[in-house]
Amino acid sequence: MAAPDSALYLGFDFSTQQLKVVAIDGNLNVVHQNNVQFDSELPEFRTQGGVHIHADRLTVTTPVLMWVKALDLLLDKMKRAGFDFSCVRALSGSGQQHGSVFWRRGASQTLRELDPEQSLAQLLQHSFSVSDSPVWMDSSSSQQCEDLQAAAGGALRLAEITGSRAYERFTGNQIAKLLQNRPNEYQDTERISLVSSFAASLFLGDYAAIDYSDGSGMNLLDIRTRTWSEMCLEATAPHLDQLLGAPQPSTSVLGRVSSCFVRRFGFSQSCSVVAFTGDNPASLAGMRLQQGDIAVSLGTSDTVFLWIQQPRPALQGHIFCNPVDWQAYMALLCFKNGSLTRERIRNECAGASWEVFSSALKETPLGNNGNIGFYFDTMEITPPAAGVHRFNLDNKKVYSVSPQVEVRALVEGQFLSRRLYAERLGYSIIPGTRVLATGGASSNKEILQVLSDVFNAPVYTINLSNSACLGSAYRALHGLVAESGVSFYDVVKNAAEPQLAASPHPAAQEVYNQMLQRYAQLEEKVLRETRP
Fold it and tell me: Residue 254 is inside which H or E element, if any?
């Protein structure tokens, strides 16, 4: 047996385009990383970007056996690299959110009797009633969304129960669509998993429970009672509670690794499988968000992650059960107009130079002399609006401003929007709040200064490249001690600290508290004017 100080913890991430793994030691150091790229390494499945986009352009699926084969391939790669599986004390993982896997009748027996002499793909090739899993990019279930919202008494009522209004990609609506369009395949189904719980089932050699956090992305879980909502189940499909199984806390140890993995790869018989979760919840763990923190990913789209105690579900954004503290919640907001809009304004107002763009932010005052702008180059989702709308200090619409004012109006407007929607979901800035910034624009000090000022909190930069994997490895380690009351924060407190990048200006709180109220009123005006 390996000495205790050489104990390792694995975190897997079944994402859209690849399967990744990270191994950490007890001191949280990354000691091994590996991956399988679906398109290039498993070309027989003919995916593009890990998916099949169907002729209707709405239906998007992934072959389930590709994920199974990818796991065979990844573990073989690790073995060839000399990775010592006997040192692994616990493993966990994440999966792309909302995707569903339909196990055929009899699959549980197949899982329990896996033969280590054969590959998982061979053993499980007949175990799925639906061979192509609907994934998060699918938007073909609009009718089912309308039906569910009607059954719930409206979109807001559904959000109050499940944390989100009905979304086409959410699992419940995909299940309803399958039942209506392909009833025979539904009848042949013994169990329905999320991508995360499907992946955990492979390691467990039995059906793994759906965890509370990823289960919150289905439009089926009551996020307050952390049980399936009977109303949502009944509106979706018959006997659905039996097909889903009971949800479990995200910190649960589900059992020991399957004997097949012990014999084929040399895992220890005592290796624990900790509940897998969704990739966004796992990223929250990887970023080590704490109460009061907010993470802002500044990419093509801007994504905001929040740790919240008292959720207020709304029509925009999502609230999930928190993956590392079962009494707390997390929220997720996505803003479509992110870096491409920043680049357009840079090109038009700063001669395509980030240096000139940064100078404009430095040389204009906090609050931009009352100028506020909304820049929705493409149809925004938070809020649903389009077009460019500029207002002066008197809340009058203006059609042009100086280039420097335009630059600040864009950046302030984007961050006021992020703060407004975060607060609407129940987020509040508290003493000790940190803003964690990641993504392309997080390397621009002046943009981060505006972010710090608008939130009146220090901004730290973090590297998010493998946060879901790392978060899963941290969660594997935490799962072993969670039941004894040890907090996730205690387990990860020795990990490398994020870098302080900006601190708020002394006048920021007063300027932006007032500006936020004006921004909200002007946004209402924009929405009224642009509604079809």
Answer: strand 253-256
Question: Widest CA span of the chain, in angstroms?
Answer: 75
Name 372's bridge partners: 391
The pLDDT of 432-455, averaged and rounded, is 94
Q: Write out the two tokens for 482.
A: 């969670």
HEC string for 354-370: HHHHHHHHHHCCCCHHH
Distance from chain centroid for Cα 191: 24
Q: Is 276 in a helix, a strand, or coil? A: coil
- Beta partners for residue 94, in sequence order: 13, 277
Q: CA of 405: how far to CAs of 357, 360, 361, 418, 517, in Å? A: 11, 8, 8, 20, 20
Q: What is the mean pLDDT of residues 172-196?
A: 97
pLDDT exceeds 60 at position 5: no
* H/E segment holding residue 530: helix 508-530
How many Å apart are CA 147 and CA 391, to the nearest integer?
Answer: 40
Q: Is the dihedral of CA 8, 9, 14, 15 positive or negative?
A: negative
Kindly tell me if the per-residue pLDDT of 3 is higher than 60.
no
DSSP line for 478-519: HHTTGGGT--HHHHHTTSPPPEEEE---TTHHHHHHHHHHHH
Locate the DSSP E strands across 257-371: 272-274, 277-278, 294-298, 302-308, 318-321, 329-335
Per-residue pLDDT band for 259 (boundaries 50, 70, 90) equals very high
Radius of gyration of the chain, Cα coordinates, nearest whole angstrom: 24
Structure tokens at 195: 């991508």
The pTM score is 0.92
β-pair partners for 88: 8
Residue type, 184: N
**Contact at 8 Å (CB) between 373 and 393?**
no
Tokens of 368: 């931009």
Contact 429, 456 (CB under 8 A): yes
Each residue of 117-136: pLDDT tens digit? 999 999 999 999 999 999 99
Predicted local confidence at residue 153, as pLDDT: 98
- C-beta atoms surrounding 399 within 10 Å: 7
Query: Which helix or strand (DSSP H or E) is residue 74 part of?
Result: helix 64-80
